[in-house]
From TrEMBL:
Name the record gives this protein: Proline--tRNA ligase
Function in brief: Catalyzes the attachment of proline to tRNA(Pro) in a two-step reaction: proline is first activated by ATP to form Pro-AMP and then transferred to the acceptor end of tRNA(Pro). As ProRS can inadvertently accommodate and process non-cognate amino acids such as alanine and cysteine, to avoid such errors it has two additional distinct editing activities against alanine. One activity is designated as 'pretransfer' editing and involves the tRNA(Pro)-independent hydrolysis of activated Ala-AMP.
Organism: Sporosarcina koreensis
Recorded family membership: Belongs to the class-II aminoacyl-tRNA synthetase family. ProS type 1 subfamily.
InterPro entries documented for this protein: aa-tRNA-synt_IIb, aa-tRNA-synth_II, aa-tRNA-synth_II/BPL/LPL, Anticodon-bd, Anticodon-bd_dom_sf, Pro-tRNA-ligase_IIa, Pro-tRNA-synth_IIa_bac-type, Pro-tRNA-Synthase_IIa_type1
Pfam families hit by this protein: HGTP_anticodon (PF03129), tRNA-synt_2b (PF00587), tRNA_edit (PF04073)
Domain notes: Consists of three domains: the N-terminal catalytic domain, the editing domain and the C-terminal anticodon-binding domain.
SUPFAM superfamilies: Class II aaRS ABD-related, Class II aaRS and biotin synthetases, YbaK/ProRS associated domain
Taxon lineage: Bacteria, Bacillati, Bacillota, Bacilli, Bacillales
Subunit structure: Homodimer.
Amino acid sequence: MKQSRTFIPTMREIPTDADILSHQLLLRAGYIRQHMSGVYSFLPLAKKVIRKIENIIREEMDAIEAVEMFMPTLQPSSLWKETGRWDSYGAELFRLKDRHERQMVLGPTHEEVVTSLIRDEVKSYKKLPLTVYQIQTKFRDEKRPRFGLLRGREFIMKDAYSFHSTVESLEDKYNEMMQAYSNIFSRLGLDFRAVIADGGTIGGEGSHEFMALSDIGEDTIAYSDASSFAANIEMAEVKVEYAKSKETLKEIVKVDTPGKRTIAEVADFLNVDPSKVIKTLIFKADEKLVVVLARGDHDINEIKLKKALQADEINLATEDEIKEMLSCKAGSIGPVKLPLDLKVYADHGVESIVNGVCGANEDDCHLVNVNPERDFAIDQYVDLRFINEGDPSPDGNGTIRFAKGIELGHVFKLGTTYSGPMKATYLDEYGKAQPYIMGCYGIGVSRILAAVAEQHNDANGLRLPKQLSPYDIHLVTINMKDEAQTKLSEELYHLLKSYRYDILHDDRDERPGVKFTDADLIGLPIRLTIGKRASEGIVEVRFRATGETVEWQKEEVTEKLQAFFG
Ligand code: 9G3
């Protein structure tokens, strides 16, 4: 392809509104352009990369008998009312009306549509299991789109859905999908980890996420430094034997703590370790108030609390609600003689506290020498806190370390979460109607482009892996007015084209510096420069990944390229 005939609008300056390197480089290298918040065009270079990503995904999906289809973006609101998600989802769901005032949504995902399709067509257990997938544009009116393609409002996703008659069949497909995902992310040249994840509002019986390791990632991964254990911090189980001090239990005493609100302020003022302070929080779980306790140096993991309480919705009681109930500030609440008959849930860490400190349910004073069970009852000890770096790995091997990650894939065991409410059934071998047992599996295709850019770049630009590069070779002619240079360039272009290489020929009438800077930005794996030694048949070769520059005789170019591309 002649660069003078394509559309690669590179930029010299760093776009001010691009806050991460991958976004800056994809803009500067002319891969993408923004039209409005969270909405982008994929320009020719990006479209070629996206197509290569999609083809790798298709090969791995086809390999596990998942069949490709394509469902509409416009979805009838009726289906979303069947699952209750028309009401449970708020502004994030793009809603619109057609000319006849019929309500519909711009699809953020397709569980409802695919389940409605399958329930109308797949009536017998004989036709199960069945796995379908699509690569399609999704719409989610994110509150704060940011980081370019990493969190957009219109984005490309591969979403697959599987239908089964037994849980075992779902397990098998789920494991096949896990393996296919590992193959996909390995073939994309990504440094990634599969982590235990939260099934979220979707519920279901299990979920994993595939995270590209990156310091700009929005998610935190807790992994063991001595085993394969890895979990999204939201889901990382805490299994710690807390040492309980042997000190004798002392008499409880109320002490003044004027203006001390936070755990740190109280611990510092009373000269105790924050781990001896009993953090007391009041949550509303589906409108029911509960008391939640944790050690002062631990943080409550609301996802764990939601699961422990089997609640759909949980929120911290507000200062006003607490003022209303206890006429003190949230920071002054404590479990001793709490004048509210609420159930008390405590994280396991509280059990080890001896002669601890807690709020007195009165501002500007606290209780010291407080002992769980002696001074207040606990209805249930549960794993409620976030794991910390340095904690023992819950699989018993090694110590927990944290890493940041970009969620690129997420797989779910849905069970009958959708087939139930949608009365989506098939007839089993006894002719009895059974709800499909389902799984769903997503990959953020456009997000991958940003993650690859985040992991494969240097200060001069992108350095895309060969298998994803929009072109294989960047052929750069220094002076298009030089006969020897244009002759060798044409000769090489057609020779290499005949070898099925995809070549971008920079035939523009630009200064060499501009051409080299653009070539580094665009980041094709190898640059062949035809310059002043063209008459000798000499080609200057530069490898983008290493920056190494060598000279090849034109006769050895094809054999050398075969060695490079393998
Ligand atoms: C919505 C909106 C946003 C959403 C969803 C629904 C995320 C929603 C979760 C999934 C789960 C899987 C199939 C492919 C893989 C992921 N954000 N999710 O369901 F209405 Cl506005 O999409 N779906």
